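Incident review: delayed structure delivery

Summary: a single-chain prediction request sat in the queue longer than the usual turnaround. Root cause was a stuck worker, restarted by the on-call engineer. No data loss occurred. The affected request and its eventual output are reproduced below so the record is complete for anyone auditing the incident later.

Affected input:
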Amino acid sequence: MTPKQRHNCMSHIRSKNTKPEQLVRQALWHHGYRYRLHAKDLPGKPDIVLPKYKSVIFINGCFWHGHDGCKDFVIPKTNTSFWLDKISKNKARDARDEAALSLAGWKVITIWECELKKSIIDETLVRLFSELIIPD
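Output delivered after worker restart:
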């Protein structure tokens, strides 16, 4: 890819209302869970906030958040130092936000993009619903 093609491709990646996020929201709504989206008053602006359950859900892209051990997390061969730096900063920010939310009494649930593939989405959603029901 030329730098211009790469820029064009990367500029079209959204941070809100992604397909993985919409899948989880649809399942939650269908099962009667009501939620807020992208709460600006909470650290990290969680993708989904369930105030009744004092829980927040982050739906992380495997590449952008550096999902360790995932086949979808591959460092690009060009501009490698930039991407390694960016992803390590993202991971540090995620850890800081999760710690702040936990300290404030919120249950933090992270769902990875690879966990929402057709072959395992049902298992992921069962895990999500059980985590919401069972208190810490």
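Verification: Residues 80-103 form the longest helix (24 residues).
Action items: add queue-age alerting; document worker restart procedure.
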